[in-house]
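Incident review: delayed structure delivery

Summary: a single-chain prediction request sat in the queue longer than the usual turnaround. Root cause was a stuck worker, restarted by the on-call engineer. No data loss occurred. The affected request and its eventual output are reproduced below so the record is complete for anyone auditing the incident later.

Affected input:
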Amino acid sequence: MPGQVSLIEVPCLGDRLHGFAHPHDPHTRQLRALRAVASVEFFKGLIVLLAGFGVLSLVHRDAWDVAESFLEWLHISPETHYAQVFLNLADQVTDAKLWGVAVGALGYSALRFVESYGLWRERAWAEWLALISGAVYLPFEIYELARRPDWVRLVIFVVNLAVVLYMAYLRMQARARVESSYGTAD
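Output delivered after worker restart:
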């Protein structure tokens, strides 16, 4: 009828941008969890990349002077035992070692960025990558937690374990979907 406005269902802009359907939909919850993990991996990569640039800023500089300035900034006397250990380590730093650390940081960051992209886009290979790369750290985290227990180590371990278990759950769920769609060979 003229003058009458019909109501049509228009998806919310946020739904269209993020691909979320209903907030209680299992796929929506899974996507949010994957994107939360992807965000954590992205920020881990970003932090290590920035640290790598920090290491590169030390190339062609006297590491002893930088270490001594750092101790002074922290108000730590260079005469203490641990300060001397720190200064002796700084004295052994070479430009080649700094470049090696920076290249390692770049490689680690690239891996985290690729993993983050894949998880954000719900790629199976990224779930495998997150599962394997997270599981590699578990024995070291358990060792450190047993050696020197504190809340930080515990939280890191629990979060990493949760990510590994969740990725294993997703991969088992995907396998079950494939098997149910093709049937099992007896």
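Verification: Residues 151-182 form the longest helix (32 residues).
Action items: add queue-age alerting; document worker restart procedure.
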